[in-house]
């Protein structure tokens, strides 16, 4: 047999049927099953021999396959002719790995097959369709058993009719034989009487009326015997021999089919047991799946609860930020001397442009690594049960502006989202870092923009990037 490539067959329009083994499988599951097996091209070739090792389950894509078994005399008896969409090798595939029948392709035939180990690996990797595959295999075996039971039943009926006909013919032949023997006995008696009469006549040398009557009776008996002999069926012995041979053949075939039926019933019983195990396994998997779904539902509820708490925390944080901003404004108005007011070195318009650019090109702007410049910050996890202190001069990673206020950024520890905090932009050099990315991007787009952070060094302590100032 020649191995074919799946891509070439798909181009020619060949694919597994949607009935039998692939019944009730989705297109995705069917494609996954196809990729695990192999395609073969055979022409009048032996696929498997009865009693030999056989580890494959075969599916006929096109063409036909003949199945046969040996009878008691060693002669091959055809038991089935399979066509496109049929499967064979199920019994050997599921247990024993020994072929229960001889299979041969008839003409050009395309087959798909999968061995036992491949099926186990496929079920392990695709557990959701394992139950359906086992049910499909059980259905195929049940259909095969039903067809073979029908064949055995028909053969038995034909055998009963033939035996009845043979018995009737035998009884008729017995009756004719008995009548013939009686007639022969009568003829012998008449012949004996005739001989005696002839002897008497030879002594008397003339006939009397008694002699004439005896001769007439003898003649009539001979005529009747001849008619009876002519009516006798001379072919009856030959037909009896023929019918006896046919009876012997029917008896041998009957024993063969009865043995085949018993064997199939035993194999079907084993498949029923295997099917029960598969159902039990399927039920166990269903229970585990149900338990997993319940756990996922519980986790979803926990996630929703934590999300709600986070939203509440963000609202509280926004409120605190607003209060802090108001307090800072009041403190600046009361504590700062007019002579100490500092004119920013960085134009506020440039700060606005950077913020607008980050909204349009957030993936270019963030994440970015910045330094803490004024006060230490504290990073916390979602439950606020663990904290990490970041000192002035140390680095954190900014993932973006805070969704509530652009005066704050969301900072985290390195690449981990475990510990996070909202930090005021004036407490980091985030604007200077973003300015460098903004100017570089503008130059790539053909726009020449100067970076004030590079042309004029400034004091991060004095510079305030808040929109309120």
Summarize the structure.
The protein is α+β, with helices and mostly antiparallel strands and 469 residues long.
Characterise this structure.
- The protein is α+β, with helices and mostly antiparallel strands and 469 residues long.
- The protein has 3 domains: 2-125, Jelly Rolls (Sandwich); 154-287, Helix Hairpins, CATH 1.10.287; 348-455, Roll (SH3 type barrels).
- It contains 11 helices and 13 strands.
- The chain has helices at 6-11, 27-36, 90-94, 116-125, 130-204, 209-231, 236-335, 348-360, 362-365, 430-444, 452-455, and strands spanning 2-4, 38-43, 46-48, 56-70, 76-82, 87-88, 102-115, 368-371, 377-380, 387-390, 395-401, 408-413, 416-424.
- Strands 1, 2, 3, 4, 5, 6 and 7 form a 7-stranded antiparallel β-sheet that branches. The protein has a 4-stranded antiparallel β-sheet with strand order 8-11-12-13, covered by helices on one side. The protein has a two-stranded antiparallel sheet with strand order 9-10.
- Strand 4 (56-70) and strand 5 (76-82) form a beta hairpin.
- Helix 5 packs antiparallel against helix 6.
- The longest helix has 100 residues, at 236-335.
- The chain starts with a strand and ends in a 14-residue tail after the last helix.
- Residues 204-215 and 336-343 have low confidence and may be disordered.
């Amino acid at each position: 047999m020649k191995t074919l490539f799946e891509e070439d067959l798909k181009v020619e329009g060949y694919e597994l049927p949607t009935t039998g083994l692939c019944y009730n499988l989705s297109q995705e599951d069917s494609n996954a099953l196809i990729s695990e097996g192999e395609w073969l091209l055979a022409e009048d070739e032996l696929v498997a021999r009865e009693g030999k090792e056989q580890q494959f389950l075969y599916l006929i894509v096109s063409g036909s396959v003949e199945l046969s078994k040996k009878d008691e005399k060693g002669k091959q008896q055809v038991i089935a002719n399979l066509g496109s969409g049929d499967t064979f090798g199920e019994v050997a595939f599921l247990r024993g790995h020994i072929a229960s029948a001889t299979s041969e392709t008839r003409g050009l035939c395309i087959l798909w097959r999968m061995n036992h180990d491949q099926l186990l690996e496929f079920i392990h990797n695709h557990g959701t369709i394992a139950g359906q595959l086992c049910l499909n295999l059980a259905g195929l075996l049940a259909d095969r058993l039903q067809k073979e039971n029908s064949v055995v039943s028909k053969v038995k009926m034909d055998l009963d009719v033939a035996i009845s006909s043979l018995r009737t013919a035998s009884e008729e032949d017995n009756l004719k034989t008995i009548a013939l023997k009686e007639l022969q006995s009568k003829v012998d008696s008449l012949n004996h009487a005739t001989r005696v009469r002839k002897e008497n006549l030879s002594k008397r040398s003339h006939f009397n009326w008694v002699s004439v009557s005896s001769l007439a009776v003898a003649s009539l008996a001979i005529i009747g015997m001849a008619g009876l002999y002519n009516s006798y069926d001379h072919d009856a012995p030959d037909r009896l021999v023929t019918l006896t041979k046919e009876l012997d053949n029917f008896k041998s075939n009957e024993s063969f089919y009865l043995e085949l039926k018993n064997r199939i019933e035993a194999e079907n019983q084993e498949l029923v047991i295997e099917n029960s195990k598969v159902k039990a396994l399927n039920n166990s998997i269903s229970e585990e799946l149900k338990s997993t779904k319940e756990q996922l539902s519980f986790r979803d509820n926990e996630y929703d609860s934590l999300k709600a708490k986070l939203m509440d925390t963000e609202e509280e944080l926004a409120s605190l930020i607003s209060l802090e901003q108001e307090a800072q404004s009041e403190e600046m108005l009361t504590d700062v001397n007019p002579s100490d007011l500092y004119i920013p070195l960085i134009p506020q318009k440039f700060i606005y442009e950077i913020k607008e650019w980050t909204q349009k090109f957030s993936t270019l702007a963030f994440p970015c690594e910045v330094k803490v410049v004024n006060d230490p910050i504290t990073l916390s996890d979602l439950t606020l049960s663990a904290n990490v202190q970041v000192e002035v001069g140390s680095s954190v990673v900014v993932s973006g502006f805070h969704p509530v206020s652009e005066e704050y950024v969301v900072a985290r520890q390195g690449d981990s989202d475990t510990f996070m905090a909202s930090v005021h932009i004036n407490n980091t050099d985030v604007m200077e870092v973003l300015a460098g990315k903004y100017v570089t991007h503008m130059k790539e787009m053909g726009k020449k923009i100067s970076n004030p952070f590079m042309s004029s060094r400034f004091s991060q302590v004095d510079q305030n990037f808040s929109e309120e100032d």
